[in-house]
Amino acid sequence: MTSCTRDVLQTTVREVAAIGRDAWRLTVALPAPLATPLAGGHFFMLRTAGADFPFLNRPFSAHAAGPDGRGPELVFLFKTVGRGTGCLARLRVGEAVTAIGPLGQPFPDPRPGETTVLVAGGVGLPPLHLWLERRRQRRLGGAALLLYGARSHDQLLELASAQALGVEVRTSTDDGSHGLHGRVDRLLEGTLAGIAGPVRILTCGPDPMMAAVTRVAATRGVPCLVSLETVMACGFGVCNACAVPIADGDGRLARYVRACIEGPVMDGKPVLWQHATH
Ligand SMILES: Cc1cc2nc3c(=O)[nH]c(=O)nc-3n(C[C@H](O)[C@H](O)[C@H](O)COP(=O)(O)OP(=O)(O)OC[C@H]3O[C@@H](n4cnc5c(N)ncnc54)[C@H](O)[C@@H]3O)c2cc1C
Ligand code: FES
């Protein structure tokens, strides 16, 4: 796993663009290049300078990170769900955003001879997009395929940008307005049936989606790494707000891990999704 030096970065807004229903792309300029290149799954705790921003910073995965993963710009995609994301959506060009990071354990790079199947749900695209961006920039080996699911076509965010990353993109929507009519775990089942040789699944999206993807993977004996979006308070291991229940081999609660430092990327198989606290 890649580890990064964590910093408190004073960034400046370059763009806030509406990209779908309640969905936004935020581009910020870094004060200096990052010491270590980012990998998909690295996240930042963001806050705006405004007094209306909630007390706690909010976590967001990096979506794109410049030509070598170190800036000079960082891109985030987010959905407005409450006060913090509302403040981000109201940002204007030139305003300040504090970003603590990079944080967390990212997805590993592709392995030669293995097919990586990336499974994104809605606004869960960013860590997988950055993984693909890094794969292309570094000319890393191994075949890859992106499966992207959402409720409706207008929630398939930045589809063109994902399609430009040099892999086949297959889509599904719950209402049938784009790609397969149905859930992305069904798209995954069909896709896995057509792949020969070793496969690894990387996924990010809502918990029920990641739980379903993990079940499909387990049924087929395919390893599956998830990027958790657990509610967080500090983002770097001091508050325990992000505890994730982990099962033993018999499916019973064995221990908790902190999603911010042991994750957000971790093996999906032992996660007790039904007991998760968020
Ligand atoms: C590592 C990590 C990466 C993330 N990356 C992204 C990203 O790239 N794009 C993005 O849009 N979001 C991402 N999130 C989720 C994002 O952090 C939350 O949506 C955000 O904190 C909500 O803040 P708020 O103040 O707007 O809403 P709040 O007022 O805090 O919450 C509004 C509602 O959303 C619920 N909620 C808040 N946080 C979460 C959560 N994590 N999971 C489920 N429900 C939640 C609350 O229970 C409440 O009902 C990520 C989370 C983590 C932990
Ligand atoms: S968010 Fe504080 S320990 Fe993980």
What does this structure look like?
The protein is α/β, with parallel strands linked by helices and 278 residues long. It has 5 helices and 15 strands. The strands form 3 sheets. It has a 7-stranded mixed β-sheet, with helices on both faces. A 6-stranded antiparallel β-sheet has the order 4-3-6-1-2-5. Strand 7 (115-121), helix 2 and strand 8 form a beta-alpha-beta unit. The longest helix is centred in the last third of the chain and has 14 residues, at 207-220. Bound molecules: flavin-adenine dinucleotide (FAD) and FE2/S2 (inorganic) cluster (FES). Residues 232-235, 237-242, 258, 260 line the site of FE2/S2 (inorganic) cluster (FES).
Kindly summarize this structure in a few lines.
By secondary structure, the protein is of the alpha/beta class. It has five helices and 15 strands. It has a seven-stranded mixed beta sheet, sandwiched between helices. The protein has a six-stranded antiparallel beta sheet with strand order 4-3-6-1-2-5.
